[in-house]
Amino acid sequence: MPIMNTIKLLGSVLDASKFIPPNHIFSIMGSPKQLIPPYHPYAEYTFFNPKELTRVLSYLEEVSLLPIPIPYHYASWLPIPETMFLRETHLFTYPENYQAGDDNFPKEAWFFINGIATNTEMAKLNCKYLNELFHRRIVGIQNPTDSILVDLLECAVGKRWKRSMSPAQNALIPISDALNDPNIERVILIGHSQGTIISANILRSFVDDKGQTYVKPFENMKKLEIYAFANCADNMEYIQDMQSEKGHPVPYIENFANGNDLVARLGVISPRRELWDIRIDGDIYVRQNAWGHLLNAHYLNGFDTSRSDYAPFRSLTKNGATPRFFGYLEGNTPLPY
Are 291 and 258 in contact (CB under 8 A)? Predict the structure, then answer.
């Protein structure tokens, strides 16, 4: 029911935001210490370098102003032209000069979906860092910012009402193509922030379709692995009655959360998940006292041993075990799940 969905959404937001101001800001931007330069080269803070004023102003314009209306088709969730508020999704590959035959991991397909307030340049910076850490070609499914206000509205609609936005719709074909490719054995989907909501809706579309349109045969879903950073979805669940060859639920899912990340507290580490009907499967790796929500600045420091602020993720439920995702670092490959 719409009213119950609204109540559950607002309830989860109130639970998540029980910080003393200005800790709400620190929960997103990081602790005061983290805000002081110098920054890691890939940190999102570098977008605010006063020496690059044009870049700063361009980014601020994209996250604060609504796109110019160019009505050419309609969004399924709003009675208005989609481009009145929504920028178009597009895919890109990092490294950008990738050529067929250059891939050292031809049996793998890697996809990344970014979070809110992310323009194209920042999404590419995320992919660049992921490429450096894991040595894989990354296909970025850009979730373009449509201004912070509209981004938040998209999150609410996608999270609670399970509506698939343009990024999810545009991602179905390339991800299903990878799943259906007999030469590809693993399909890795990485989502951050709003990207986890989009990832959850992609998974839901595949499951609801049951191989009628997208994944044929449906058993190909066993190739899928999802790694969710600050998972704020309401539902990301295993496929019923399907297991991998080793007996693991499908798809493989791992979640990563900083304990003081307000966005992660909306989903995977919500204080009262059951009350608000939040169902997220997969192992959960939490750094209880960590602050910040940005992928490069606050999450990937849990994978980069070269950083001075390196702080690995540990499982709360597996006696402090490290994530399986660690097994992909530096071009390595973990055993099948």
Answer: yes
Alpha carbon 96 to its chain centroid, in Å, reads 21
| Close Cβ partners of 79 (under 8 Å, ≥ 6 residues apart) | none
Q: ∠ CA 119-120-125 to the nearest 5 degrees?
A: 100
With tokens 């041993």, the residue in question is 305
pTM, two decimals, is 0.91
What distance in Å separates the CA atoms of residue 102 and residue 139, rounded to the nearest whole number? 14
The number of beta carbons lying within 10 Å of the beta carbon of residue 237 is: 17
| Structure confidence by residue, pLDDT tens digits, 252-266 | 999 999 999 999 999
Q: Which of 83-87, 98-102, 230-234, 310-314 has the lowest mean pLDDT?
A: 83-87
- Asked if 201 and 115 count as a contact pair (C-beta separation under 8 A), the reply is no
Residue type, 249: P
Asked whether 89 and 167 are in contact (CB, 8 A), the reply is yes
pLDDT greater than 50 at residue 78 = no
